[in-house]
Amino acid sequence: YTFFSNARVDGMIRREEVIGHKVMENYENRDDFLVYRSVAVDHNPQSTNPRQKIFTIEMCGIKDLVIRKITEKFARNKKISAEDDVRKRTHFLTDGTIRLDFHYGPQYIRHSTRTIDKADKLDQA
């Protein structure tokens, strides 16, 4: 599907579904700088963390698809430094981890990353 971003409050300009596998959405002109979001699903849940909660959705009449991964990409926010500005956030739901990739700083050939293990956070609580 293709949309006029001015006609939508969320700024979505495109949505594509690969039935039973993935949903991809593109955005523009958002206050939070989100430009892309995808949700990848699986038919068979294979969590590597037994304490990790499993999330399911229905897609095109297929029930109980397990959400495996959610990826969000963001445009550059010039108000904060590139090293602190998240470029890509990936939630690996079956593993219970989140990976943050930051924008490239000026004159840098690589970017910073950070991985957060939600199981470690649960153990500390």
What can you tell me about this protein's structure?
With 125 residues, the protein is mostly beta strands. The chain contains one helix and eight strands, in the order ββββββββα. It has one helix spanning 118-124; strands at residues 12-18, 22-27, 34-42, 56-59, 62-74, 86-92, 97-102, 113-117. Strands 1, 2, 3, 4, 5, 6, 7 and 8 form an eight-stranded antiparallel sheet that branches. Strand 1 (12-18) and strand 2 (22-27) form a beta hairpin. It starts with 11 loop residues before the first strand and ends with a helix.
Quick structural gist:
The protein is mainly beta and 125 residues long. It has one helix spanning 118-124, and strands at residues 12-18, 22-27, 34-42, 56-59, 62-74, 86-92, 97-102, 113-117.
The profile of the biggest β sheet is: 8 strands, antiparallel
Strand content: over 45%
Oligomer: single chain
Low-confidence stretches: none
Residue-averaged pLDDT, rounded?
A: 86
H/E topology pattern: EEEEEEEEH
Helix tally equals: 1
Gyration radius over CA: 17 Å
The residue fraction in helices comes out at under 10%
Compute the separation of the termini in Å.
43 Å
- Work out the number of β strands: 8
Protein structure class: mainly beta
Tell the overall outline. Answer: flat
